[in-house]
Design brief:
With 102 residues, this protein is α+β, with helices and mostly antiparallel strands. The chain is 42% helix and 25% strand. The chain has three helices and five strands; from the N terminus they run βββααβαβ. Strands 4-3-5 form a three-stranded antiparallel beta sheet. The chain has a two-stranded antiparallel ribbon with strand order 1-2. Helix 1 packs across helix 2. The longest helix is centred in the C-terminal third of the chain and has 17 residues.
């Protein structure tokens, strides 16, 4: 802060730095009951992935136990998890999906 000659204080303009919002990855987990084709369908429907990329992620889920479907801001990731879970339950599949901060 600097003093003005009349005794009042003059504030220097500060540079505000806005941080980007935290991002969250939507993760799908393997189970022994959900058909692979259904997982590919979900990836195409809710994550707008081409069939080839959806198949690659499904295979990663199948072989490694989990796979990242996409990275989004918190509210979008939360919506995706809710949509996938609801759709899976409607079709009587126990597909698990969650979000994790990156």
């Amino acid at each position: 802060m600097a003093e003005k000659p009349d005794g009042s204080t003059l504030l220097k303009p500060s540079e505000t730095q806005v941080k980007p919002p935290p991002m969250f990855q939507v993760v799908m987990y393997n189970d022994d009951y959900t058909p692979m084709e259904f997982v590919v369908e979900v990836l195409q429907l809710f994550f707008a992935l081409p069939r080839e990329r959806a198949t690659q992620i499904m295979l990663k889920v199948h072989t490694e136990g989990r796979g990242v479907c996409g990275i989004y801001p918190k509210d979008v990731a939360s919506s995706k998890v809710e949509q996938v879970t609801a759709y899976s339950r409607e079709h009587q599949h126990p597909l698990q999906c969650a979000m994790e901060e990156t």
